[in-house]
Amino acid sequence: MDKIQKLAVGSILIGVIVFALKYAAYYMTGSIALYSDALESIINVVTAVAALLAVRLSAQPADKNHPYGHHKVEYFSAVLEGVLIIVAALLILRESYFGLLHPRNLDIPLEGLGVNAIATFINACWSWLLIREGRRMRSPALNADGRHLLTDVYTSAGVLAGLLFVPLTGWHWLDPAMAALVAVNILWSGWGLMKESIGGLMDEAMPEEELKRVRDVIAVNAEGAIEAHDLRTRHAGRVTFIDFHLVVPGHMSVTEAHDICDRIERALRSDIDDALITIHVEPDNKAKHAGIVVLS
């Protein structure tokens, strides 16, 4: 089991612990806002299981039916997370609506808020770790899971702050109102997550800053060639696909052209983790006099 899978398993365990704490806080207070917070934690557990399945499947090597590997399955996991986040938000909105129609007198004990605060602190630490490692290891599933938990942290902090005012002001409508705000924030998070994941499924190119790095690496390491053009890139989970056309002098031997390609590939792989590179070698009459100029 690699580090990504271990983190995914850790997310499931953390999710169960946090849900237990948040449900205990709701049981102690009867707060609709804390109920909404606990409900979101159930979604956290479900999405953590989906993330684990996704990273395990994405780690499988390429096969006859999937010659380019299984990397994109992590995007499906992230889309599923977005859908479940939106479903949770709609359920919370339903509870907050009935709470606003019939506000209840709440005697919110500080112990219940303290239990929820502990759960929020655990989520904050874990979400920071998932986002950091997800970005470092280029895992959409881990990154999505971490961002989802970070949204949970923000909303939990807002709920706790709002509920502190209920016994001070006597505004009992504040409890369902805070739950509604939680739902709106969750909806926004779910939409953003789905939009980003669908972009990955649609083979979006690398960001311009990364594309510039790729061009620079090719230009510096393609000595002996004439130019490179038609550069195309796309992300698929942790893997970056890079392909381009490399124009070489017509009299150059296959061995010499192959050596140039090997040099470029080594340089790109040292600069970009998990890069899969395809280079189409062409004779000089195919030059477009546009694209990447080789630096001699």
From TrEMBL:
Q: Which UniProt keywords apply?
A: Membrane, Transmembrane, Transmembrane helix, Transport
Q: Which residues cross the membrane?
A: 7-26, 32-55, 75-93, 113-131, 152-171, 177-194
Primary localization: membrane
Tell me which Pfam families the record gives: Cation_efflux, ZT_dimer
The Cation efflux protein cytoplasmic domain extends over 207-283
InterPro entries for this protein: Cation_efflux (IPR002524), Cation_efflux_CTD (IPR027470), Cation_efflux_CTD_sf (IPR036837), Cation_efflux_TM (IPR058533), Cation_efflux_TMD_sf (IPR027469), CDF_Transporter (IPR050291)
What's the protein's topology in the membrane? Multi-pass membrane protein
Give all residue intervals belonging to the Cation efflux protein transmembrane domain.
11-202
Provide the protein's localization: Membrane
Q: Which domain of life is it from?
A: Bacteria
Family, according to the entry, reads as follows: Belongs to the cation diffusion facilitator (CDF) transporter (TC 2.A.4) family.
Q: Please give the PANTHER family that the UniProt record associates with this protein.
A: MITOCHONDRIAL METAL TRANSPORTER 1-RELATED (PTHR43840:SF15)
The molecule here is called Cation diffusion facilitator family transporter
Organism annotation = Microvirga puerhi
